[in-house]
Amino acid sequence: MPAGYSGTPLSKKLGITHSTRLVVLGEPHDYATLLGPLPPGAVRLASPTKTASLVHVFVTEREALSAQLEGLRSGLGPEAAVWVSWPKKASRVPTTVTEDTIREVALPLGFVDVKVCAVSEVWSGLKLVVRKELRVKSAARLIV
Question: What is the pTM of this model?
């Protein structure tokens, strides 16, 4: 863990399990340390695909957030989760993203937020999933 940070490993907070196929976009330099070891069987993918089960996005600008979420909404499978991390106010990292900004961008795309967590002393995280009624319709289209 980074100096001055203690608590639950990030991999556990994010819900990473043996079957997780993780993609990380815009990761900070200390991400591997924060994340800790992945459970056996979990893998990191280089880019988002329909097989990714969890994407962790780090953003500081609303425009980048909007572009990322639009691409992820169309490029991921209906059961995938997206964690969006933005700088905490106390970090003094310049940003145009807040928890409310994430909701403003995500909700019209069919995402809903289900969990929030502290990622580090600098970053917060908000977990997004596709609304349940949209997941059912998307999954049905994949089966047909």
Answer: 0.88
